[in-house]
Each structure stands twice: as structure tokens, then as C-alpha cells.
Amino acid sequence: RRAMASLWMLLVCANAAAALLVCLYLWLIAWPRWKRETRARLKVADDATVVAFFHPFCASGGGGERVLWKMVHTLAQLHREKKRRLHVVIFAQKGPKTPEQILAGAEERFGIDVSTGGGSGGGGGGSMKIDFVFIETELIDLLHAETWPRFTMIGQSYGSMVVAWRGFQTATPDLYFDTTGAAFTLPLGKLCGARCAAYVHYPTISTDMLAMVYSRRPSYNHDSAIASSKLASLVKCVYYFLFAGLYGVAGAFANVVFVNSSWTRDHIEALWRLSPAPTVLYPPVNVEALAALPFASAGGGGGGSSGG
């Protein structure tokens, strides 16, 4: 028994030492070299800060993309006003659209003109450059729930780390911003020497989900067959609580945390106990488009259907 215990302790220490050596190699050698190569390859100005966004589906036109493009638009304004020299890089899914088409689509879909902030590769006249790192579809597939019929949360989180790793290898930033809720990419960003920020639309796991599994109540994320089994419920409960703990540790690597609502803030505060206090930043809404609609004034004629 003593020999087995000693062997086990030796294996643990060897694995810990190997992990430490890998982290030191990345921190001291690999990441600095990749950062220099990034600035040379993308022709980043000496005084510019490279800001990378993790948003693989930025060309899909979904509601969550409005937050991304509004942030890029705001950074472009800061750059044009010479408040900060910036160079934006977006980790995106490889597809048929060119960078110019993606930027034009953002303006058409959301009314946010990011192309004037600098088209991909564009650079003259003080405009901010926007580059894309296109990630292969084979890696992007790891982000889809369908790829992980079991242990979906941990599978998708692993997939986000793989995708982010590919992005960091291609473009190592000074500031890393996750705008999709992929919290497990934050430790990688911190490891490469970047300051990290997160915008959380919806927590990957919530205290409501934990309570649902703990109380064995059937729900969308808790099948009735598992809820009816004490052993299966216990296994899932352990899995959920372990994942929640890892999720909280990942969130601790963020220097700044934004959330889209007070509901999300409450859950993030409960789960990310080691991270900075989250700030509620409501998603942007195109009120200008609503104001331009020809609404009839209250009590006035016209606009309503009249009987005749």
C-alpha cells in the first residue's frame, strides 16, 4: 500500500510539474513570439492595441451579434477620435462571406456602420483596421450542442477552448473580449498575456439549473428518466456542481465582466465569486428605426380602419 501510495504521489507530482513546464513555456516563450508574429503579419502599428473578439458566428445576423458590432463601432469611434490606437481582430467561422461582406451585412442587418471604422486590411486616413481569423468548420462543429449528445456543457466548453486556441495561435491579442459567453476561453486569453473581458448574455449554467437537478424535477435540461432515478440524479448533480465550480474558476480570469440584465448579473454573482463584480450593460436597441415609423397619434384620425 505504501508503495502504491508513493507511486500515485509521484505520478501526481510528475503531471503537475509537466503542466507547470507547459504553462511556463507558453507564458515565457510561445506567446511572446506569437504576439510579435501577429503584429508583423497583420501590420499592427507600434502604438496600437490589438483587441480580439471571440464571436465565431458573427456573420449569422442573430440578435447577439448586435452587441459585437456595437462594440466594434464604439472602438472605431475611439480610434478615429485619437483617444486610443486600436486594431480589432475577430475570431470567426470560415464561410463563403468575405470580410467586406460580413461588415456590410452588419450595417444592413443592424444599421451599425462598422465599415467606416476600417475595412479588413484597410488602414488609411486614421481608420481602425478590422481583421478576421477564420476558423475551420471542423473545429467550429465542436461548439454545436448536436456534437455532444451527452455532457453537452463540458463538451461545448472544450470546443470553445479548441477554437479560441486556434485563434490565439493566429492572432495573439493585447486585449481579449468574449462576447458569446464562452467563459472557458478566458484562462487561455490570460495565459497568452492578454487582459480579458466578458459580455455574458446568458450563463452557461445557472443556479436555477442546479436547483432543478438537485430537487429531481423534470425539465428541459433534466430528463424525466434521470429525474426518476436516484443514482442517475446523483451522478448528474455531481456533474452539474463540478461544472459550476469550474465555470466560476474560468470567470475569475476576467478583468472586466459585463452582463445583459439584472437576472444574468444575479446568477453570475452567485457563480463567479472570484471575478470582478459584473456591470449591467443592456444590449443596444435601434430606437432610431422605431422612431422613424409612421405611428398615428393617439386620438387622431387616420391609421385605423374605418367602417363604412
Walk me through the topology.
Elements: H1 2-41, E1 49-54, H2 65-80, E2 86-93, H3 99-110, E3 129-135, H4 137-140, H5 152-170, E4 175-178, H6 186-191, E5 195-200, H7 207-214, H8 224-227, H9 230-251, E6 256-259, H10 262-271, E7 279-280, H11 287-291
Parallel strand pairs: 1-2, 1-4, 2-3, 4-5, 5-6, 6-7
Features:
disordered C terminus; alpha/beta; globular; seven-stranded parallel β-sheet; 11 helices; 308 residues
Give the structure's gist in a few sentences.
The chain is of the alpha/beta class. The chain is built from 11 helices and 7 strands.
Would you write up a description of this structure?
With 308 residues, the chain is α/β, with parallel strands linked by helices. The protein is built from 11 helices and 7 strands. Helix 6 links the parallel strand 4 (175-178) and strand 5 (195-200). The protein is globular, with a radius of gyration of 23 Å. The relative contact order is 0.10. The model is unreliable at 116-125 and 301-308 (pLDDT under 50).
Low-confidence stretches: 116-125, 301-308
State the total count of DSSP E strands.
7
Average pLDDT rating: 85
What is the molecular shape?
globular
Largest sheet: 7 strands, parallel
The span between the termini is 97 Å
Number of helices: 11
Query: Biggest sheet, strands in spatial order?
Result: 3-2-1-4-5-6-7
Summing up helix and strand content along with how strands pair, one would put the structural category as alpha/beta
Calculate Rg over CA atoms: 23 Å
Percent of residues in beta strands: 5-15%
Summarize the amount of helix as a percent range.
Answer: 40-55%
H/E element order:
HEHEHEHHEHEHHHEHEH
